[in-house]
Amino acid sequence: MRLGAAFGIAAVLLTTGCATAPAPAGAPTPAAAASAAAPRPAPQLTDVPSEAALMALLESGSEQDDNADAAVIVEDPEVNPASATHPGQAPDPAAVQQNDLWERIRRGFAMPDLEGDLVKNREQYYASRPDYVQRMTERASRYLFHIVEEVEYRGMPTELALLPFIESAFNPQAMSVAKASGMWQFIPSTGKHYDLTQNIFRDERRDVLASTRAALDYLGKLYGMFGDWHLALAAYNWGEGSVQRAIARNQRAGLPTDYASLRMPTETRYYVPKLQAIKNIVANPAAYGLALTPIENHPYFLTVAIQRDIDVDLAARLAELPMDEFRALNPQMNKPVILAAGTPQILLPYDNARRFIRNLSDHEGPLASWTAWVVPTTMKVADAAKRAGMSEDELRRINKIPPRMMVRAGSTLLVPRHPHKHTEDVSAEVADNAVMSLVPEGGSGRRVVVRAKGRETVAALARRVGVRAADLAQWNGVSPSARFAAGQRVVVYKPGKAKASTAVARTGKSSKSSKASTRTASKKKAAGTRTAAKGNGKSKSRVNVARN
Protein backbone atom coordinates (compact mmCIF):
# COMPACT_ATOMS: atom_id res chain seq x y z
CA MET A 1 0.00 0.00 0.00
CA ARG A 2 2.70 2.48 0.98
CA LEU A 3 4.83 1.61 -2.03
CA GLY A 4 1.90 2.08 -4.37
CA ALA A 5 1.22 5.48 -2.86
CA ALA A 6 4.86 6.39 -3.25
CA PHE A 7 4.79 5.61 -6.97
CA GLY A 8 1.63 7.64 -7.25
CA ILE A 9 3.25 10.80 -5.91
CA ALA A 10 6.76 10.36 -7.34
CA ALA A 11 8.09 13.16 -9.55
CA VAL A 12 11.39 13.17 -11.37
CA LEU A 13 14.04 15.00 -9.34
CA LEU A 14 17.57 15.30 -10.64
CA THR A 15 20.97 16.11 -9.27
CA THR A 16 21.98 19.50 -10.56
CA GLY A 17 25.23 18.23 -11.96
CA CYS A 18 23.89 15.23 -13.80
CA ALA A 19 24.78 16.15 -17.35
CA THR A 20 28.14 17.01 -18.75
CA ALA A 21 30.56 16.03 -21.45
CA PRO A 22 34.32 16.60 -21.22
CA ALA A 23 35.33 19.98 -22.59
CA PRO A 24 36.75 19.77 -26.10
CA ALA A 25 40.44 20.37 -26.48
CA GLY A 26 41.44 23.82 -27.58
CA ALA A 27 39.41 27.00 -27.75
CA PRO A 28 35.71 26.62 -28.56
CA THR A 29 34.48 27.70 -31.96
CA PRO A 30 31.99 30.57 -32.28
CA ALA A 31 29.36 28.03 -33.32
CA ALA A 32 29.93 26.02 -30.16
CA ALA A 33 29.68 29.11 -27.99
CA ALA A 34 26.58 30.30 -29.81
CA SER A 35 24.88 27.02 -28.93
CA ALA A 36 24.98 28.18 -25.31
CA ALA A 37 21.47 29.58 -25.66
CA ALA A 38 20.08 26.08 -26.19
CA PRO A 39 18.64 24.68 -22.95
CA ARG A 40 20.45 21.74 -21.41
CA PRO A 41 18.40 18.57 -21.94
CA ALA A 42 17.36 16.88 -18.73
CA PRO A 43 18.18 13.18 -18.36
CA GLN A 44 15.13 10.96 -18.43
CA LEU A 45 14.37 8.07 -16.13
CA THR A 46 14.45 4.79 -18.04
CA ASP A 47 13.30 2.67 -15.10
CA VAL A 48 11.41 3.16 -11.89
CA PRO A 49 13.36 3.51 -8.64
CA SER A 50 13.85 0.40 -6.57
CA GLU A 51 11.30 -0.53 -3.92
CA ALA A 52 14.00 -0.18 -1.29
CA ALA A 53 14.79 3.37 -2.40
CA LEU A 54 11.18 4.46 -2.17
CA MET A 55 10.58 2.68 1.11
CA ALA A 56 13.62 4.43 2.56
CA LEU A 57 12.09 7.80 1.70
CA LEU A 58 8.87 6.88 3.47
CA GLU A 59 10.15 4.84 6.38
CA SER A 60 9.25 7.53 8.91
CA GLY A 61 6.01 8.65 7.19
CA SER A 62 2.42 7.48 7.47
CA GLU A 63 0.41 5.82 4.74
CA GLN A 64 -1.70 8.92 4.20
CA ASP A 65 -0.12 12.28 4.97
CA ASP A 66 -1.53 15.70 4.13
CA ASN A 67 1.93 16.83 2.99
CA ALA A 68 2.99 13.64 1.24
CA ASP A 69 2.74 15.26 -2.19
CA ALA A 70 4.28 18.61 -1.25
CA ALA A 71 7.78 17.66 -2.40
CA VAL A 72 9.53 14.57 -3.69
CA ILE A 73 12.95 13.48 -4.80
CA VAL A 74 13.78 10.51 -6.98
CA GLU A 75 17.33 9.82 -8.01
CA ASP A 76 18.10 9.25 -11.66
CA PRO A 77 19.45 5.68 -11.77
CA GLU A 78 21.70 6.60 -14.70
CA VAL A 79 23.55 9.24 -12.71
CA ASN A 80 26.79 8.56 -10.89
CA PRO A 81 27.33 11.69 -8.76
CA ALA A 82 31.10 11.24 -8.90
CA SER A 83 31.15 11.05 -12.69
CA ALA A 84 28.02 12.64 -14.13
CA THR A 85 27.37 12.35 -17.85
CA HIS A 86 24.66 13.10 -20.36
CA PRO A 87 22.47 10.10 -21.24
CA GLY A 88 24.04 8.00 -23.95
CA GLN A 89 27.55 9.32 -23.28
CA ALA A 90 30.25 7.13 -21.80
CA PRO A 91 31.72 8.34 -18.50
CA ASP A 92 35.08 10.07 -18.74
CA PRO A 93 37.55 7.64 -17.10
CA ALA A 94 39.75 10.53 -15.99
CA ALA A 95 36.77 12.17 -14.29
CA VAL A 96 35.88 8.94 -12.52
CA GLN A 97 39.42 8.59 -11.16
CA GLN A 98 39.91 12.25 -10.36
CA ASN A 99 37.82 13.54 -7.48
CA ASP A 100 39.39 17.02 -7.45
CA LEU A 101 37.23 19.70 -9.06
CA TRP A 102 40.16 22.12 -9.24
CA GLU A 103 42.05 19.63 -11.40
CA ARG A 104 39.02 19.23 -13.63
CA ILE A 105 38.91 23.02 -14.05
CA ARG A 106 42.63 23.13 -14.89
CA ARG A 107 42.17 20.51 -17.60
CA GLY A 108 39.52 22.67 -19.25
CA PHE A 109 41.55 25.88 -19.52
CA ALA A 110 41.38 26.97 -23.16
CA MET A 111 41.72 30.76 -23.29
CA PRO A 112 44.96 32.36 -24.51
CA ASP A 113 47.02 33.58 -21.57
CA LEU A 114 47.32 37.30 -20.98
CA GLU A 115 50.58 38.64 -19.62
CA GLY A 116 51.79 41.99 -18.40
CA ASP A 117 52.06 44.28 -15.40
CA LEU A 118 48.30 44.37 -14.75
CA VAL A 119 48.21 40.59 -14.35
CA LYS A 120 51.19 40.68 -11.99
CA ASN A 121 49.53 43.46 -10.02
CA ARG A 122 46.39 41.36 -9.47
CA GLU A 123 48.42 38.24 -8.66
CA GLN A 124 50.18 40.18 -5.91
CA TYR A 125 46.86 41.56 -4.70
CA TYR A 126 45.36 38.09 -4.17
CA ALA A 127 48.61 36.51 -2.93
CA SER A 128 48.83 39.14 -0.19
CA ARG A 129 45.28 38.33 1.00
CA PRO A 130 45.18 34.58 1.73
CA ASP A 131 42.23 34.94 4.13
CA TYR A 132 40.16 36.65 1.44
CA VAL A 133 41.05 33.97 -1.12
CA GLN A 134 40.07 31.29 1.38
CA ARG A 135 36.68 32.91 2.06
CA MET A 136 36.01 33.19 -1.68
CA THR A 137 36.92 29.57 -2.38
CA GLU A 138 34.85 28.32 0.56
CA ARG A 139 31.82 30.15 -0.82
CA ALA A 140 32.60 28.88 -4.32
CA SER A 141 32.59 25.27 -3.10
CA ARG A 142 28.76 25.29 -3.07
CA TYR A 143 28.37 26.38 -6.69
CA LEU A 144 31.47 25.51 -8.71
CA PHE A 145 30.53 21.95 -9.63
CA HIS A 146 27.25 23.08 -11.16
CA ILE A 147 28.91 25.95 -13.04
CA VAL A 148 31.67 23.71 -14.40
CA GLU A 149 29.04 21.22 -15.57
CA GLU A 150 27.21 23.95 -17.48
CA VAL A 151 30.39 25.46 -18.93
CA GLU A 152 31.65 22.10 -20.16
CA TYR A 153 28.29 21.13 -21.60
CA ARG A 154 28.34 24.27 -23.75
CA GLY A 155 31.91 23.63 -24.94
CA MET A 156 33.22 26.76 -23.25
CA PRO A 157 36.63 27.18 -21.58
CA THR A 158 36.53 26.46 -17.86
CA GLU A 159 38.10 29.84 -17.08
CA LEU A 160 34.51 31.14 -17.30
CA ALA A 161 33.61 29.12 -14.21
CA LEU A 162 36.04 31.38 -12.30
CA LEU A 163 34.35 34.61 -13.40
CA PRO A 164 32.17 34.95 -10.26
CA PHE A 165 35.42 35.27 -8.28
CA ILE A 166 35.95 38.70 -9.80
CA GLU A 167 32.29 39.62 -10.22
CA SER A 168 31.01 38.97 -6.71
CA ALA A 169 33.57 36.86 -4.79
CA PHE A 170 30.99 34.06 -5.27
CA ASN A 171 28.46 35.85 -3.08
CA PRO A 172 24.97 35.32 -4.60
CA GLN A 173 23.63 38.13 -2.39
CA ALA A 174 26.14 40.69 -3.74
CA MET A 175 24.56 43.99 -4.76
CA SER A 176 26.29 46.97 -6.37
CA VAL A 177 25.20 50.55 -5.78
CA ALA A 178 23.73 50.50 -9.29
CA LYS A 179 21.63 47.47 -8.27
CA ALA A 180 23.59 44.85 -10.19
CA SER A 181 22.81 41.69 -8.28
CA GLY A 182 23.89 38.10 -7.78
CA MET A 183 26.97 36.02 -8.42
CA TRP A 184 27.05 37.11 -12.06
CA GLN A 185 26.03 40.74 -11.39
CA PHE A 186 23.08 41.48 -13.66
CA ILE A 187 21.32 44.83 -13.54
CA PRO A 188 17.50 44.69 -13.76
CA SER A 189 17.17 45.46 -17.49
CA THR A 190 19.73 42.90 -18.67
CA GLY A 191 18.33 40.35 -16.25
CA LYS A 192 14.88 40.78 -17.79
CA HIS A 193 16.38 40.45 -21.29
CA TYR A 194 17.75 37.05 -20.26
CA ASP A 195 14.47 35.92 -18.67
CA LEU A 196 15.44 36.43 -15.04
CA THR A 197 12.17 37.17 -13.21
CA GLN A 198 12.34 40.07 -10.76
CA ASN A 199 9.30 40.83 -8.65
CA ILE A 200 8.35 41.31 -5.04
CA PHE A 201 8.58 37.57 -4.30
CA ARG A 202 11.82 36.57 -6.02
CA ASP A 203 14.80 37.92 -7.91
CA GLU A 204 16.27 35.33 -10.24
CA ARG A 205 19.41 37.40 -10.74
CA ARG A 206 20.36 35.79 -7.42
CA ASP A 207 19.05 32.34 -8.36
CA VAL A 208 22.01 29.95 -8.63
CA LEU A 209 20.68 27.94 -11.58
CA ALA A 210 18.86 30.69 -13.49
CA SER A 211 21.61 33.30 -13.22
CA THR A 212 24.28 30.82 -14.32
CA ARG A 213 22.20 29.92 -17.35
CA ALA A 214 21.67 33.58 -18.20
CA ALA A 215 25.35 34.53 -17.74
CA LEU A 216 26.55 31.72 -19.99
CA ASP A 217 23.88 32.57 -22.57
CA TYR A 218 25.16 36.14 -22.59
CA LEU A 219 28.83 35.17 -22.73
CA GLY A 220 28.10 32.76 -25.58
CA LYS A 221 26.37 35.54 -27.50
CA LEU A 222 29.33 37.88 -26.95
CA TYR A 223 31.85 35.29 -28.09
CA GLY A 224 29.76 34.77 -31.20
CA MET A 225 29.95 38.54 -31.86
CA PHE A 226 33.69 39.03 -31.31
CA GLY A 227 35.22 35.58 -31.87
CA ASP A 228 37.65 36.30 -29.03
CA TRP A 229 37.16 35.48 -25.36
CA HIS A 230 39.10 38.48 -24.07
CA LEU A 231 36.92 40.85 -26.09
CA ALA A 232 33.81 38.92 -25.04
CA LEU A 233 34.76 39.38 -21.39
CA ALA A 234 35.44 43.08 -21.95
CA ALA A 235 31.96 43.37 -23.47
CA TYR A 236 30.42 41.51 -20.52
CA ASN A 237 31.95 44.13 -18.25
CA TRP A 238 31.70 47.24 -20.40
CA GLY A 239 28.99 46.51 -22.98
CA GLU A 240 29.17 45.17 -26.51
CA GLY A 241 28.46 48.59 -27.99
CA SER A 242 31.33 50.15 -26.09
CA VAL A 243 33.74 47.43 -27.23
CA GLN A 244 32.55 47.72 -30.83
CA ARG A 245 33.14 51.48 -30.77
CA ALA A 246 36.61 51.01 -29.26
CA ILE A 247 37.48 48.51 -32.00
CA ALA A 248 36.17 50.85 -34.70
CA ARG A 249 38.22 53.72 -33.24
CA ASN A 250 41.41 51.65 -33.41
CA GLN A 251 40.61 50.47 -36.91
CA ARG A 252 40.26 54.07 -38.11
CA ALA A 253 43.61 54.89 -36.51
CA GLY A 254 45.29 51.83 -38.00
CA LEU A 255 45.91 50.33 -34.55
CA PRO A 256 45.54 46.70 -33.37
CA THR A 257 42.10 45.71 -32.11
CA ASP A 258 42.99 43.08 -29.50
CA TYR A 259 41.95 43.51 -25.88
CA ALA A 260 45.28 44.94 -24.69
CA SER A 261 45.32 47.56 -27.48
CA LEU A 262 41.87 49.08 -26.88
CA ARG A 263 41.27 52.26 -24.93
CA MET A 264 38.82 51.42 -22.16
CA PRO A 265 37.82 52.42 -18.62
CA THR A 266 40.12 51.41 -15.79
CA GLU A 267 37.75 48.74 -14.50
CA THR A 268 37.52 47.01 -17.87
CA ARG A 269 41.28 47.34 -18.40
CA TYR A 270 41.79 45.37 -15.17
CA TYR A 271 38.91 42.95 -15.79
CA VAL A 272 40.60 40.25 -17.86
CA PRO A 273 43.92 40.61 -15.96
CA LYS A 274 41.98 39.85 -12.76
CA LEU A 275 40.53 36.70 -14.29
CA GLN A 276 43.98 35.73 -15.60
CA ALA A 277 45.42 36.20 -12.12
CA ILE A 278 42.74 33.93 -10.62
CA LYS A 279 43.45 31.39 -13.38
CA ASN A 280 47.17 31.45 -12.63
CA ILE A 281 46.52 30.96 -8.91
CA VAL A 282 44.18 28.04 -9.58
CA ALA A 283 46.77 26.52 -11.94
CA ASN A 284 49.53 26.66 -9.33
CA PRO A 285 48.44 28.01 -5.93
CA ALA A 286 51.67 26.99 -4.20
CA ALA A 287 53.62 29.38 -6.44
CA TYR A 288 51.74 32.23 -4.76
CA GLY A 289 51.94 30.87 -1.24
CA LEU A 290 48.24 29.99 -1.28
CA ALA A 291 46.21 26.86 -0.65
CA LEU A 292 42.80 26.35 -2.24
CA THR A 293 39.93 24.91 -0.24
CA PRO A 294 39.50 21.34 -1.57
CA ILE A 295 36.34 20.84 -3.64
CA GLU A 296 35.22 17.34 -4.53
CA ASN A 297 34.21 16.58 -8.09
CA HIS A 298 30.57 15.77 -7.44
CA PRO A 299 27.34 17.73 -6.88
CA TYR A 300 27.10 19.80 -3.72
CA PHE A 301 23.32 20.11 -3.92
CA LEU A 302 20.24 18.40 -5.27
CA THR A 303 17.16 19.97 -6.82
CA VAL A 304 14.04 19.26 -4.76
CA ALA A 305 10.68 19.86 -6.42
CA ILE A 306 7.99 21.45 -4.26
CA GLN A 307 4.30 21.47 -5.10
CA ARG A 308 2.94 23.55 -2.20
CA ASP A 309 3.66 27.05 -0.90
CA ILE A 310 5.93 26.81 2.13
CA ASP A 311 7.48 29.26 4.58
CA VAL A 312 11.21 29.77 4.16
CA ASP A 313 11.97 29.17 7.84
CA LEU A 314 9.89 25.96 7.84
CA ALA A 315 11.68 24.67 4.72
CA ALA A 316 15.04 25.29 6.38
CA ARG A 317 13.91 23.53 9.57
CA LEU A 318 12.57 20.52 7.68
CA ALA A 319 15.85 20.30 5.79
CA GLU A 320 17.72 20.59 9.12
CA LEU A 321 19.81 23.39 7.66
CA PRO A 322 20.91 26.65 9.31
CA MET A 323 19.09 29.58 7.73
CA ASP A 324 22.27 31.14 6.33
CA GLU A 325 23.13 27.90 4.51
CA PHE A 326 19.58 27.54 3.19
CA ARG A 327 19.65 31.10 1.86
CA ALA A 328 23.12 30.58 0.36
CA LEU A 329 21.60 27.92 -1.90
CA ASN A 330 18.25 29.67 -2.36
CA PRO A 331 19.17 33.37 -2.33
CA GLN A 332 16.48 34.49 -4.79
CA MET A 333 13.69 34.65 -2.19
CA ASN A 334 12.52 38.20 -1.37
CA LYS A 335 9.80 37.22 1.09
CA PRO A 336 9.48 34.74 3.99
CA VAL A 337 7.42 32.34 1.84
CA ILE A 338 8.31 30.23 -1.20
CA LEU A 339 5.53 30.21 -3.80
CA ALA A 340 5.47 26.86 -5.56
CA ALA A 341 3.88 28.36 -8.67
CA GLY A 342 6.86 30.66 -9.14
CA THR A 343 9.66 28.70 -7.47
CA PRO A 344 8.85 25.04 -8.10
CA GLN A 345 12.19 23.81 -6.77
CA ILE A 346 14.70 24.48 -4.03
CA LEU A 347 18.34 23.47 -3.72
CA LEU A 348 19.53 21.41 -0.78
CA PRO A 349 22.70 19.49 0.06
CA TYR A 350 22.43 15.79 -0.71
CA ASP A 351 21.75 14.49 2.82
CA ASN A 352 19.53 17.42 3.74
CA ALA A 353 17.35 16.84 0.67
CA ARG A 354 16.43 13.42 2.00
CA ARG A 355 15.85 14.77 5.50
CA PHE A 356 13.56 17.42 4.01
CA ILE A 357 11.43 14.80 2.24
CA ARG A 358 11.24 12.62 5.34
CA ASN A 359 10.45 15.48 7.73
CA LEU A 360 7.92 17.00 5.34
CA SER A 361 6.03 13.73 5.24
CA ASP A 362 5.86 13.77 9.04
CA HIS A 363 4.93 17.45 9.33
CA GLU A 364 1.50 18.26 10.69
CA GLY A 365 -0.21 21.58 10.17
CA PRO A 366 -0.01 24.23 7.46
CA LEU A 367 3.11 24.69 5.36
CA ALA A 368 2.66 28.38 4.63
CA SER A 369 1.63 31.10 7.07
CA TRP A 370 1.81 33.82 4.38
CA THR A 371 -0.02 34.39 1.14
CA ALA A 372 -0.53 37.10 -1.48
CA TRP A 373 -3.38 39.59 -1.66
CA VAL A 374 -3.98 41.78 -4.71
CA VAL A 375 -5.33 45.10 -3.44
CA PRO A 376 -8.67 45.84 -5.20
CA THR A 377 -8.57 49.62 -4.81
CA THR A 378 -6.10 52.30 -3.78
CA MET A 379 -6.12 52.50 0.00
CA LYS A 380 -4.24 53.69 3.05
CA VAL A 381 -1.86 51.23 4.65
CA ALA A 382 -3.89 51.27 7.87
CA ASP A 383 -7.02 50.24 5.94
CA ALA A 384 -5.13 47.53 4.06
CA ALA A 385 -3.72 46.19 7.33
CA LYS A 386 -7.18 46.05 8.88
CA ARG A 387 -8.56 44.08 5.94
CA ALA A 388 -5.55 41.75 6.03
CA GLY A 389 -5.94 41.14 9.75
CA MET A 390 -2.53 42.40 10.81
CA SER A 391 -1.00 45.48 12.37
CA GLU A 392 -0.07 48.45 10.23
CA ASP A 393 3.54 48.29 11.41
CA GLU A 394 3.83 44.64 10.43
CA LEU A 395 2.25 45.22 7.03
CA ARG A 396 4.67 48.07 6.36
CA ARG A 397 7.66 46.05 7.52
CA ILE A 398 6.96 42.84 5.63
CA ASN A 399 6.06 44.73 2.43
CA LYS A 400 8.64 47.53 2.81
CA ILE A 401 6.10 50.34 2.50
CA PRO A 402 7.58 53.80 3.27
CA PRO A 403 5.80 56.29 5.52
CA ARG A 404 3.10 58.58 4.13
CA MET A 405 2.43 56.34 1.13
CA MET A 406 -0.76 54.57 0.05
CA VAL A 407 -1.00 51.25 -1.78
CA ARG A 408 -2.23 51.59 -5.35
CA ALA A 409 -4.96 49.32 -6.74
CA GLY A 410 -3.53 46.17 -8.33
CA SER A 411 -0.53 46.01 -5.98
CA THR A 412 0.29 42.66 -4.40
CA LEU A 413 0.81 42.52 -0.63
CA LEU A 414 2.16 39.71 1.49
CA VAL A 415 -0.42 39.01 4.21
CA PRO A 416 -1.08 36.27 6.78
CA ARG A 417 -2.77 33.13 5.55
CA HIS A 418 -5.77 32.70 7.85
CA PRO A 419 -7.30 29.26 8.50
CA HIS A 420 -10.68 30.18 7.00
CA LYS A 421 -9.63 32.50 4.19
CA HIS A 422 -6.65 32.86 1.86
CA THR A 423 -6.25 29.08 2.12
CA GLU A 424 -5.30 28.33 -1.48
CA ASP A 425 -1.76 28.50 -2.79
CA VAL A 426 -0.83 31.62 -4.75
CA SER A 427 -1.53 31.38 -8.47
CA ALA A 428 1.18 31.40 -11.12
CA GLU A 429 -0.16 34.70 -12.47
CA VAL A 430 0.42 36.45 -9.16
CA ALA A 431 3.66 34.59 -8.35
CA ASP A 432 5.22 35.64 -11.66
CA ASN A 433 3.79 39.14 -12.09
CA ALA A 434 3.33 40.60 -8.62
CA VAL A 435 4.05 44.32 -8.44
CA MET A 436 4.00 46.96 -5.75
CA SER A 437 2.87 50.45 -6.67
CA LEU A 438 2.60 53.29 -4.18
CA VAL A 439 1.15 56.78 -4.26
CA PRO A 440 1.61 59.61 -1.73
CA GLU A 441 -1.15 59.91 0.86
CA GLY A 442 -3.95 62.29 -0.10
CA GLY A 443 -3.36 61.67 -3.80
CA SER A 444 -1.31 64.85 -4.09
CA GLY A 445 2.35 64.64 -4.88
CA ARG A 446 4.54 63.54 -7.72
CA ARG A 447 7.13 60.90 -8.43
CA VAL A 448 10.29 62.46 -9.80
CA VAL A 449 13.71 61.11 -10.65
CA VAL A 450 16.92 62.91 -9.81
CA ARG A 451 20.50 62.13 -10.77
CA ALA A 452 22.91 61.52 -7.92
CA LYS A 453 26.22 63.31 -7.78
CA GLY A 454 29.44 61.33 -7.53
CA ARG A 455 29.49 59.19 -4.34
CA GLU A 456 26.60 61.25 -2.93
CA THR A 457 25.20 59.85 0.31
CA VAL A 458 21.52 59.21 0.92
CA ALA A 459 21.53 61.92 3.58
CA ALA A 460 23.19 64.47 1.30
CA LEU A 461 20.81 63.84 -1.59
CA ALA A 462 17.83 63.93 0.78
CA ARG A 463 18.90 67.38 2.01
CA ARG A 464 19.40 68.52 -1.57
CA VAL A 465 15.86 67.60 -2.65
CA GLY A 466 14.13 68.38 0.66
CA VAL A 467 12.93 64.98 1.88
CA ARG A 468 13.74 62.77 4.86
CA ALA A 469 16.79 60.52 4.43
CA ALA A 470 14.90 57.50 5.84
CA ASP A 471 12.10 57.99 3.29
CA LEU A 472 14.57 58.37 0.42
CA ALA A 473 16.35 55.17 1.43
CA GLN A 474 13.07 53.22 1.58
CA TRP A 475 11.83 54.56 -1.75
CA ASN A 476 14.99 53.30 -3.43
CA GLY A 477 15.56 50.09 -1.49
CA VAL A 478 18.94 51.10 -0.06
CA SER A 479 20.44 51.53 3.38
CA PRO A 480 20.22 55.02 4.93
CA SER A 481 24.04 54.93 5.07
CA ALA A 482 24.46 54.03 1.38
CA ARG A 483 26.08 56.10 -1.33
CA PHE A 484 24.81 56.52 -4.88
CA ALA A 485 26.93 56.21 -8.01
CA ALA A 486 27.53 59.31 -10.10
CA GLY A 487 24.52 59.82 -12.36
CA GLN A 488 22.46 57.09 -10.70
CA ARG A 489 18.68 57.59 -11.05
CA VAL A 490 17.05 58.11 -7.65
CA VAL A 491 13.28 58.10 -7.09
CA VAL A 492 11.85 60.93 -4.99
CA TYR A 493 8.23 61.58 -3.99
CA LYS A 494 7.60 65.32 -3.64
CA PRO A 495 4.47 66.97 -2.17
CA GLY A 496 2.28 69.03 -4.46
CA LYS A 497 0.83 68.47 -7.91
CA ALA A 498 3.02 67.26 -10.74
CA LYS A 499 3.80 69.69 -13.56
CA ALA A 500 5.29 69.05 -16.96
CA SER A 501 8.14 71.44 -16.19
CA THR A 502 9.14 69.57 -13.02
CA ALA A 503 10.20 66.21 -14.41
CA VAL A 504 13.39 66.66 -12.40
CA ALA A 505 13.14 67.67 -8.75
CA ARG A 506 14.19 71.23 -7.96
CA THR A 507 17.66 71.30 -6.47
CA GLY A 508 18.13 75.02 -6.07
CA LYS A 509 18.94 75.55 -9.77
CA SER A 510 16.84 77.53 -12.18
CA SER A 511 14.77 75.82 -14.86
CA LYS A 512 17.21 77.12 -17.43
CA SER A 513 20.21 75.61 -15.66
CA SER A 514 18.33 72.31 -15.29
CA LYS A 515 17.69 72.23 -19.03
CA ALA A 516 21.34 73.09 -19.66
CA SER A 517 22.34 70.25 -17.38
CA THR A 518 20.06 67.87 -19.28
CA ARG A 519 21.57 68.96 -22.61
CA THR A 520 25.08 68.47 -21.23
CA ALA A 521 24.20 64.99 -19.97
CA SER A 522 22.73 64.10 -23.37
CA LYS A 523 25.88 65.26 -25.14
CA LYS A 524 28.03 63.23 -22.80
CA LYS A 525 25.93 60.18 -23.43
CA ALA A 526 26.16 60.65 -27.20
CA ALA A 527 29.94 61.02 -26.92
CA GLY A 528 30.15 57.68 -25.18
CA THR A 529 31.50 59.12 -21.95
CA ARG A 530 28.88 57.70 -19.67
CA THR A 531 30.82 54.88 -18.06
CA ALA A 532 28.47 53.89 -15.29
CA ALA A 533 26.79 51.10 -17.27
CA LYS A 534 28.46 47.80 -18.04
CA GLY A 535 27.63 45.32 -20.72
CA ASN A 536 25.41 43.28 -18.49
CA GLY A 537 24.13 46.49 -16.99
CA LYS A 538 26.45 46.52 -14.02
CA SER A 539 27.66 49.80 -12.58
CA LYS A 540 31.33 50.56 -12.55
CA SER A 541 30.94 51.22 -8.85
CA ARG A 542 32.32 48.57 -6.55
CA VAL A 543 30.14 45.61 -5.64
CA ASN A 544 29.12 45.50 -2.01
CA VAL A 545 30.38 41.99 -1.28
CA ALA A 546 30.25 40.37 2.13
CA ARG A 547 33.90 39.70 2.89
CA ASN A 548 33.62 37.98 6.24
UniProtKB/TrEMBL annotation:
It holds the Pfam family LysM. Residues 1-21 form the signal peptide. Coiled coil: none annotated. Residues 448-492 form the LysM domain. InterPro entries: LysM, Lysozyme-like_dom_sf, Transglyc_AS, Transglycosylase_SLT_dom_1. Residues 23-39, 505-520 have a biased composition (Low complexity). The keyword Signal applies. GO terms for biological process: peptidoglycan metabolic process. Residues 23-44, 502-548 are annotated as: Disordered. It comes from the Bacteria. Keywords: Signal. GO terms for molecular function: peptidoglycan lytic transglycosylase activity. GO terms for cellular component: membrane. PANTHER family: MEMBRANE-BOUND LYTIC MUREIN TRANSGLYCOSYLASE C (PTHR37423:SF2), SOLUBLE LYTIC MUREIN TRANSGLYCOSYLASE-RELATED (PTHR37423). This is Lytic transglycosylase. It comes from Caldimonas thermodepolymerans.
